[in-house]
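Folded chain entry
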Amino acid sequence: MSRHRIARRRAAAAIVGVAVLGLLTGCDLFAPQDTKYIQETADGVNGDIGAIFIGNAVLLTTDASGTTSLVATLVNQGESNEDVRISTDAGTHTVTVKPAESVQTGTPDGESVLFEGLGAKPGSLAYVTFETSTETETLNVPVLDGGLPQYKDLAP
């Protein structure tokens, strides 16, 4: 075989290799990348008010006219204590979160945040306002009845 023929074969192999590589990786050009759109898997809702992160907030009740408990995690990502006021149509509670710590509400070992006569039925949504000294956020929080196994022992 001549040098010219060998060079042609190498060039053809390189072109075919580049074409195959382009075909195999080109589908990523137009396909949506799911890792860019991270969604949290939770029953509740999340929010941020300044240095405070609100995680998986849900309201639990067995009777719309009775007691409703807020189950959530409050995380202080700041460097100073934060007082978080939690308000609904049925009242207000204040929870203090120390820097770089978290507080669970509505759990046996956590802070008790109970609202009497909120009137929110299981399956509905209720407005809960979270407020620090600098920011306020109102979340539309789902109301559950404790039927899910993870909430069975937490319903008031």
